[in-house]
Amino acid sequence: MRAHEAGALHGDLGNRGPAWLRTPEDVNALVPQLWPRTVTRAADGSLQVGGVSVTDLAADHGTPAYFLDEDDLRARCRDFAAAFAGADVYYAGKSFLCKAVVRVVEEEGLFLDVCSGGELAVALAAGFPPERLGFHGNNKSVSELRRALEAGVGRIIVDSFHEIDRLSELSRELGKRPGVLVRVTVGVEAHTHEFIATAHEDQKFGFSLAGGAAFAACARILDEDVLDLRGLHSHIGSQIFDTSGFEVAARRIVELQAQIRDARGVELPELDLGGGFGIAYTTQDDPSTPGDLAKRINKIVESECELASLRVPHLSIEPGRAIVGPAVFTLYQVGTVKDVDGIRTYVSVDGGMSDNIRTALYDASYSATLANRSSGAEPMLARVVGKHCESGDIVVKDEFLPSDVQPGDLVAVPGTGAYCRSMASNYNHVPRPPVVAVRDGAARVIVRRETEDDLLALDVG
Ligand SMILES: Cc1ncc(COP(=O)(O)O)c(C=O)c1O
Ligand SMILES: N[C@@H](CCCC[NH3+])C(=O)O
Hints:
29% of the residues lie in helices and 23% in strands. The protein has 461 residues and is α/β, with parallel strands linked by helices.
């Protein structure tokens, strides 16, 4: 539910907030599902991650900054790999990609999904085995496809007839026979924000199942026999909690597998059901564990295959957010606190929509906590905003912070590992924050802070 829909007034505080948001009994308490697993409040009240206090991290690395709990990230990779044992788990690099994360993904035995020449370049620069890469995109350029073929990318997920033609021509030219999946639009209305739903009919991704394009794409690939058609792919959207969407997708896509078998005598050996598994951004979100997801997804694929008398294909999934999202928090410093009489208290921090566009773009909800100390002050409903020239520059729409929050305090926002640094911008020429990995009492910068010199270096006029 969105704050403006809820329209509830918190009588005790006279502030406007969503109906679900309750005054916390202890404003210093950390809600476990929101935080990376090594985050705790130390005896002095400050947060610590990987055994390092955020006050030290802020002193050493500045704010705003993204802090990655490396143990948490690795544990999430392992949880998915163990739950989906026997399947290929592709980490969706669009959620956040840098060489250090590529190495973690490789060390933890995952595959990697990239969706642009740039992401491919990061993966290759980090030495990721190309055969474990999947290459996505609805408009891959000829040069991106050429690079993917030359590098030996394991799977190319084709998304249009133009791409099939382009890739076939390049494959002939280079003497390659790449493994491909056909991305199918299964016609599912995923329960998520409209901008991040990807399997309803009216949108740019994939080949329509209902309209027959998906079957025609497979038929064309099989007829031409230049590309090695390994299977079908479906991705229904992102930040999804209700697994019924995956079930409908699996059912429809298995029906298409059966149709291809009946018409062409070919049982496609692979099936990729994409990513999109939701994470907790607030106390309202209750995500499934990888184990639960695996159980439900395997069950539906197996039962649908049995119904269609198909062998169960080799399964892949592509989680991004669910792996990196909860492993990171953003640390900001408070610059001003403004009580707009009787309406709202605005806590301004030193970042904003340039390091987290999701609130403005998707009306996303986040949580926050005072990070450099605990406080005995009464909870106060606040809006955490950034420093940009835009009134929609909101980081956390509604959150209870201690009422003595003041300039110089640190505020931490959890759940910012996915689609925050990767979608960051230089709006207002604000340099993008660093990403710092913390583990076993030590912090290391894995993406350095951008500088004004970096920005000016591009300005060659
Ligand atoms: C094809 C594909 N796979 C995987 C993902 C990863 O999604 P998420 O980060 O929600 O798991 C996306 C993004 O929505 C996607 O478009
Ligand atoms: N960028 C989106 C998700 C889209 C993922 C890619 N298809 C988000 O922040 O939630």
